[in-house]
Amino acid sequence: MLVAVAALAAERPHAPDELAARLATPRVAAHRGGYGVPDSNTVTRFEIARSQGADIVETDLRLSKDGVVYLFHNARMDRVTSCTGPFTSHTSAEIDACILTGLGRGPDRFEDALRWSQGRVVIDAELKAPEVSEPAIDLVRHYGAYDWVYFQVGNGLNTYERVRRYDKRVALEASPRGANGERWLKALLAKNDPRLLIIQLHPDFYSRRILQAVRDGGKRTSMNAWTLAPETDGASCDAAYARGIDIAVTNAPESCASQRDRMFATPSAPAPSPAPTR
């Protein structure tokens, strides 16, 4: 009975779209909460990013051998934890006992992040492997997190379609790129999916024409700011905003928030023109 109720809730149209409204103006997304520090990809770092002005915290999801969803980027546990081997070869009990390098404890679970946020900040979660999709969506259903979580489904259509077969309501971000990027983008926009909210663009898949196609499709854009200029001495979000990007994903959230506030302090200021790249 509970499964049936959850499935019906996932199918039910939801309006107004609160999450889309929260992404309506230029936003700061903290890459792993902040990159290059021992507590990256943890709830502790997410709270720091939130306090620094981040609107969104970006993270990565992987699945344990026994089906628990964790915040973890790498496919293997070597180098970044006291454990070795593929992440998926370990049970949750084993993963909890693995020590993150420089931190003294194991990885956080996706459920930890959902309990922490409760809608105070948006969570952008990359599905690092197809099999994590359904367990991660189950947690969004359980916590009623449809209006403050979106999932990255990557390039192509495979993960997008897998997620949509399971849940039509969960919000998504797609990242078409490469030789087939324009074909994937066209196919995604043709679906007229109101909960495909964001198209992530890359410097090698960006032009005024592509940007306009995304806008005409009613989608918002994101870009990894550090791919435009190194963020060793501060954020490069101003370079992303200047290209007309809505969500700048950054390794330096506090600096990025300052750039956002400085560039958009005047409500009547004209929107930036996208910089031509090709």
Description:
It contains 11 helices and 9 strands. It has an 8-stranded parallel β-barrel with strand order 1-2-4-5-6-7-8-9, surrounded by 5 helices. The longest helix has 11 residues, at 133-143. Helix content is 34%, strand content 16%. The radius of gyration is 18 Å and the shape is globular. It has one domain: TIM Barrel. 45% of the residues are buried. The protein has 278 residues and is α/β, with parallel strands linked by helices.
The description of the largest β-sheet is:
8 strands, parallel, barrel
Strand order of the largest sheet: 1-2-4-5-6-7-8-9
CATH class: Alpha Beta
- Name the assembly state: single chain
Please tell me how large the radius of gyration is. 18 Å
Query: Distance between termini?
Result: 54 Å
Order of helices and strands: HHEHEEHHEHEHEHEHEHEH
The CATH architecture classification is Alpha-Beta Barrel
Annotate the secondary structure layout.
Elements: H1 2-11, H2 18-22, E1 27-31, H3 43-51, E2 56-63, E3 69-71, H4 92-97, H5 110-117, E4 122-127, H6 133-143, E5 149-152, H7 158-166, E6 171-174, H8 181-190, E7 196-200, H9 208-216, E8 220-224, H10 237-242, E9 247-250, H11 253-263
Parallel strand pairs: 1-2, 1-9, 2-4, 4-5, 5-6, 6-7, 7-8, 8-9
Antiparallel strand pairs: 2-3
